[in-house]
Amino acid sequence: MTDIGLSSQLTAPLSPDARIPLIGFGTWQLSGDEARQAVSWALEAGYRHLDTATGYGNEDQVGAALRDSGVPRDEVFVTTKLPPDHVGRERQTLQESLDKLGVDHLDLWLIHWPPNGTAGVESWKVFVEAQKEGLVRHIGVSNYSLDQIDELTSQTGVTPAVNQIKWSPVQFDRDLLEGSRERGVVVEGYSPFRAAKLDDPVLTGLADKYGKNVPQVIVRWHLQRGVVVIPKSAKRERIESNIDVFDFELSADELTAIDNLSEA
């Protein structure tokens, strides 16, 4: 079991006075009582970053678990996302998310996918206004290319703080990571285990070396690369295991070996 609050010690900067925890708890495909219980376990285990979305249909359960946890609201970083088919209903969707989550602001609001394959400039303008009004502390995107991010910046003068994308050892993209950082965009990875080759000898060898399991090695790799990771599980033991990654550190050569799995 990880000490409560320990996960918050590893963060990435979003602005001069705000940071995002590098480990979050993902809630995709969790619903009903299962979602509420999983989020409760996550908060007990020390997660202080919760990731949901309007499209997941579980914002009310995430909010209930947060309220019942006893963890102060200002200690938990809450993210949700606007579905691309809600273009034109951004403010209504935001208010619905706030109501379901039972909070008066979001820490991060993302455009979930590029609307109709476009950058979604008009939606982004609404996001910018919501941030100015204090309803959202930070705004970002998900599944965007660097060109689409550049279009938002050029049209509004505001660059997304975060781009949440599918990310795992086999999807490591140095150019994308460096390009994002040059723009001041934090990369946040979802589905860290689904695309990974969990039986790869590099990963299993490192797990054996450090007395860990492969998912823990993958989470640690994200952290040391400064990429936000949001593992998801409905099982308490896996929720606790995925955040139990603070008692070992990968070497520079080991990080590079994992990076190179994207070329295998």
TrEMBL record:
<keyword id="KW-0521">NADP</keyword>
<comment type="similarity">
    <text>Belongs to the aldo/keto reductase family.</text>
</comment>
<protein>
    <submittedName>
        <fullName>Aldo/keto reductase</fullName>
    </submittedName>
</protein>
<feature type="domain" description="NADP-dependent oxidoreductase">
    <location>
        <begin position="23"/>
        <end position="262"/>
    </location>
</feature>
<dbReference type="Pfam" id="PF00248">
    <property type="entry name" value="Aldo_ket_red"/>
</dbReference>
<dbReference type="InterPro" id="IPR023210">
    <property type="entry name" value="NADP_OxRdtase_dom"/>
</dbReference>
<dbReference type="InterPro" id="IPR020471">
    <property type="entry name" value="AKR"/>
</dbReference>
<feature type="binding site">
    <location>
        <position position="112"/>
    </location>
    <ligand>
        <name>substrate</name>
    </ligand>
</feature>
<feature type="active site" description="Proton donor">
    <location>
        <position position="56"/>
    </location>
</feature>
<dbReference type="InterPro" id="IPR018170">
    <property type="entry name" value="Aldo/ket_reductase_CS"/>
</dbReference>
<feature type="site" description="Lowers pKa of active site Tyr">
    <location>
        <position position="81"/>
    </location>
</feature>
<dbReference type="InterPro" id="IPR036812">
    <property type="entry name" value="NAD(P)_OxRdtase_dom_sf"/>
</dbReference>
<keyword id="KW-0560">Oxidoreductase</keyword>
<dbReference type="GO" id="GO:0016616">
    <property type="term" value="F:oxidoreductase activity, acting on the CH-OH group of donors, NAD or NADP as acceptor"/>
</dbReference>
